[in-house]
Design a protein that fits this description.
By secondary structure, this protein is mainly alpha-helical. It has 20 helices and 11 strands. It has a 3-stranded antiparallel beta sheet with strand order 3-4-7. The N and C termini lie far apart (80 Å). The structure holds glutamic acid.
């Protein structure tokens, strides 16, 4: 690409970070990284009543968690900032004044009552609601009259009445709108804040944005933006409108069908790698059948011409499939890091309660590595490893049955004997213990593998299912294995 790629993600901090917005952020980020360009994060907080710092924090946190880093934006002031629109009000005012001075915009003093009445009337006559341009024709005396009454005006753009305005979308080609449908739209509100249209155009120009990638529900705004670019004498950026994300029923993805915010997915134990991989394929394809793509792969392969124009359908099952894949395949230290908060929340800690053959970090890795095959999300992990965190286990159902099996007492006694004779009980030693026990009890009692393993597993974990038994033993460590079984023996022999 000859010119530099400068793109932006421009969220309004008015709510949670929605999956649709993240997909927009992700495509911009991939585009910037693919072209060695810049990714700008601009906070569009000009809707004072609806914007909040909390929402902004959630956006930044969500992006950071997903690994979508920005080159310019909050906390990374580049030379073309500031990056909060609320810190750029003087810039918008001076630009609005420029349009007023060149006769391309005008003050409008119409009250909200009048506008409401006008729209009602238009609806009644079956006409689309549009501003009737009354204030275009005000005299200086009219204006002075309003000013002396203290009426704060808005500023409207003087949209041409005739003709049409076109722009080129890189994916969809030329898109045209009849000017009379575009209305004399407001560019400055009476509270002195710019509207989205003005702020977005001024900022995209001053921040030297080369490509605007945003969801296709912004297409109707783009001709207005093009009119503004022309009015200022600027070249518009390239536009790429991204396909909407729909739910399976064909509606817009919304909370009614399930979780739509990144925070919810994080909370429920989805891995950022899985979300990034899945979202990248919602409306973009690498051009072959490869499904598992790391962030590096995506950066390497992401080009705008593989973005689709037809809507993408959100499929939770498919996202779950990616999540399971990443849970099973990510490096174990990465997984340990991701799982730790879930363990802390469930048990107040992510560490062993007493010495084992492992350092705390190694212990956690062993734990995670032995349980990850069994879960669909990180949130399920604590329940699978309760045995390692809780000493008072309940023995019910199959576990209680296994403990009452005729040979159980002898199996457990032999197990404790073997463990006692060891200094170090790591996973290799635990495997040897189990092998020896099986050989011994086969010879002595003709017991099968199941008859040996079940009571030990049940005794140590309170369940007859679960992670690899040698891992369970190593995770509990020598002293805890001995104590747990000894206590049990006394309670089951009573
Ligand atoms: N602030 C707008 C939003 O919330 C930005 C739209 C655009 O990218 O131009 O989506």
């Amino acid at each position: 690409m000859a010119e530099s790629a400068r793109v932006r993600f421009a969220p309004s901090p008015t709510g949670e970070l929605h999956l649709g917005n993240v997909r927009t952020a992700l495509f911009n980020w991939l585009f910037a990284r693919h072209h060695n360009g810049s990714f700008i994060l601009r906070i569009e907080d000009t809707d004072v009543a609806r914007s909040s710092e909390e929402a902004e924090r959630a956006i930044l946190e969500g992006l950071r968690w997903l690994g979508i880093d920005w080159d310019e934006g909050p906390g990374k002031e580049g030379s073309l900032g500031p990056y909060h629109q609320s810190d750029r009000l003087a810039i918008y005012r001076s630009h609005a004044t420029r349009l007023l001075d060149s006769g391309l915009a005008y003050h409008c003093y119409c009250s909200s009552e009048r506008l409401e009445e006008m729209r009602r009337e238009q609806r009644r006559r079956g006409r689309p609601p549009r501003y009737d341009r009354r204030c275009r024709a005000l005299t200086d005396a009219d204006r002075e009259g309003y000013e002396s009454e203290g009426t704060e005006p808005v500023i409207r753009f003087m949209t041409p009445r005739q003709g049409e305005t076109s722009f080129r979308d890189l994916l969809r080609g030329e898109i045209s709108f009849a000017n009379d449908t575009l209305d004399d739209f407001v560019i400055m509100k009476s509270d002195g804040y710019p509207t989205y249209h003005l702020a977005s155009v001024v900022d995209d120009h001053l921040m030297e944005v080369s490509h605007v990638l945003r969801a296709d529900d912004w297409i109707p705004s783009s001709p207005r933006h093009v009119l503004l670019y022309r009015a200022f004498g600027w070249d518009p950026p390239h536009f790429v409108h991204l396909p909407l994300i729909l739910d399976k029923a064909g509606g817009k993805l919304s909370k009614r069908q399930g979780d739509v915010s990144v925070a919810d997915y994080k909370q429920n134990g989805y891995l950022p790698e899985a979300l990034v991989n899945y979202l990248a394929l919602l409306g973009w394809s690498p051009g072959d059948t490869q499904e598992i793509l790391s962030a590096e792969d995506l950066i390497d392969r992401f080009t705008w011409d593989r973005i689709s124009v037809s809507p993408a359908v959100f499929d939770l099952e498919r996202l779950n499939w990616f999540n399971r894949w990443y849970i099973r395949h990510l490096p174990v230290d990465r997984m340990a890091h991701a799982v730790a908060p879930y363990l802390r929340e469930a048990y107040g800690r992510e560490e062993q309660s007493e010495d084992t053959a492992y350092s705390p970090a190694e212990w956690l890795k062993l734990l995670v590595d032995n349980v990850r095959e069994e879960v669909d999300s990180l949130g399920q992990i604590p329940a699978h490893v309760a045995f390692a965190f809780i000493d008072e286990l309940a023995y019910t159902g199959e576990a209680a049955e296994a403990m009452r099996a005729p040979a159980a007492g002898e199996v457990l006694a032999a197990f404790v004997d073997k463990v006692r004779s060891l200094e170090i009980l790591d996973i290799a030693a635990a495997n040897t213990v189990l092998q020896n026990l099986r050989a011994l009890l086969k010879e002595r009692r003709n017991l099968g593998a199941r008859e040996v393993m079940f009571p030990i597993r049940a005794g140590l974990t309170g369940s007859v299912h679960g992670p690899n038994l040698a891992a369970v033993i190593a995770l509990l460590g020598r002293d805890r294995c001995i104590r747990r079984v000894t206590q049990l023996q006394s309670s089951f022999s009573r």
